[in-house]
Design brief:
Blueprint lengths: L2 H33 L6 H33 L5 H23 L4 H4 L4 H27 L5 H21 L6 H22 L5 H24 L1 H9 L4 H7 L58 H9 L13 H10 L3 H7 L8 H7 L5 E4 L12 H6 L5 E4 L4 H4 L1
């Protein structure tokens, strides 16, 4: 193959990657904006679309560069299509193997007999499917028939993966959504590459440079706005994966808040209660409905002990959970910090728990909780899982309520 033609194919991959990535990112953020994001003005909505498009343009350009390298290696062999299929399966192997075993990482799924054998079979089937699909794609790219049908199928796969990413188990199982995001980007780039046979070097270089600049501008915009960081990391399907995999893309400095000097000297607070021999107990009950508690007006006698505590102490009429599931709520409760700020925006900071503070002042601490506390998004809670929330004595097991008491 002439050198100019080979170079044109390589630049076509980069141009297609940057363009398809930008389009996928813009549609992804646009979907989020249409669904509604609290606190996002029209101007910031447009910036969010630009941020998602910029990040995905860089991801698509890098993917196109990788595909171009695979093409160069494959064309040096006797059967380029077969070699391309093998290289694609090799590149996909880490993701497919990780997904196959992650499917059975939950407490119940891990107890199923033979689940490891099933994981191996699923990984092997996935590798075979990638090999066959990549080989057929390479032949279509080299001038085989059915190019239009292949483009339509790839676009359908991209749209289906994006739809599934947003509607199936949202915010759960990070590996699942990472894979769907990757499928969306790969299918979109592959579809556009079939439509673009070759590109001039200046067009591919311009696309790559534009993707780099767009990604840098996106990171700077995220570093300057907490609202945009929240929207990008919590409300998008593609940009959130890119940011979780490469948090260094966010540029800029965090805002430093300084307390203003009081305008007038305030009177001292009254002395609080003094109970030197008292114990502090924090009892949590998962999924307990306030409207089924007698102290809050429920007519049936379902919670006599809680009702007795409420009569003797302080009862709050309004309390707000900081997250819609136990894992994040418990972490916020024990650190007094909002979970997004604690994990997503400043993951490298040390977050003192109430147990750590009490131990610092000589209290003895103990905790009794099940592994289910770390069941959802365990990778974000790994520091707390490793330190047991800084409790001195811990019983970390599944037991019934009576044994836990």
């Amino acid at each position: 193959m002439p050198e100019s033609r080979a170079a044109g194919r390589g630049w076509a991959w980069i141009a297609a990657g940057a363009t398809a990535g930008a389009a996928a990112g813009a549609l992804d953020a646009g979907w989020s904006v249409l669904k509604g994001i609290g606190g996002l003005s029209d101007g910031k909505a447009l910036r969010l679309i630009g941020i998602d498009a910029g990040l995905m343009a860089l991801a698509g350009a890098l993917l196109g560069l990788l595909a171009a390298l695979v093409g160069v290696l494959a064309r040096r062999t006797r059967d380029p299509a077969r070699t391309a299929g093998g290289l694609a399966a090799l590149l996909a192997a880490p993701v497919l193997v990780a997904d196959a075993f992650a499917m059975f990482s939950g407490h119940l799924a891990a107890s199923l007999p033979g689940h490891q054998a099933v994981s191996i079979l699923l990984a092997a089937a996935g590798l075979a499917a990638v090999f066959v699909a990549a080989r057929r794609y390479a032949r279509a790219l080299d001038g085989g028939g059915g190019r239009g049908l292949a483009v339509a199928l790839l676009l359908l796969v991209a749209a289906g993966a994006e739809l599934a990413n947003r509607t199936v188990l949202p915010r759960l199982y990070h590996w699942f959504h990472q894979t769907l995001a990757a499928v969306t980007l790969v299918a979109a780039v592959a579809a556009l590459r079939l439509a673009v046979r070759r590109a001039r070097s200046w067009a591919g270089g311009l696309a790559l440079a534009g993707a780099l600049v767009a990604a840098y501008v996106s990171g700077t915009a995220l570093g300057a706005s907490q609202v945009l960081r929240f929207a990008a990391t919590e409300r998008t399907a593609l940009a959130s994966v890119a940011l979780s995999g490469a948090p260094g893309l966010i540029h800029g400095r965090a805002a430093v808040v300084t307390a203003a000097a009081p305008s007038a000297r305030l009177p001292p607070l009254p002395d609080g209660p003094r109970r030197p021999d008292a114990d502090v107990l924090v009892i949590t009950i998962d999924a307990l409905r306030a409207d089924h508690i007698g102290a809050y007006g429920y007519p049936r006698n379902t919670t006599p002990n809680i009702d007795a505590l409420a009569r003797q102490g302080v009862r709050f009429t309004r309390a707000y959970s900081q997250a819609p599931h136990t894992s994040f709520s418990v972490s916020s409760m024990l650190t007094a910090k909002y979970f997004p700020a604690m994990v997503r925006l400043a993951p490298g900071e040390k977050h003192d728990t109430i147990a750590a503070v009490l131990r610092r002042f000589g209290w003895k601490t103990a905790a009794f909780y099940p592994p289910a506390v770390f069941y959802i998004d365990s990778d974000k809670l790994k520091d707390f899982a490793a330190t047991n929330f800084d409790f001195e004595y811990v019983k970390f097991e599944y037991i019934d309520a009576q044994r836990r008491v």
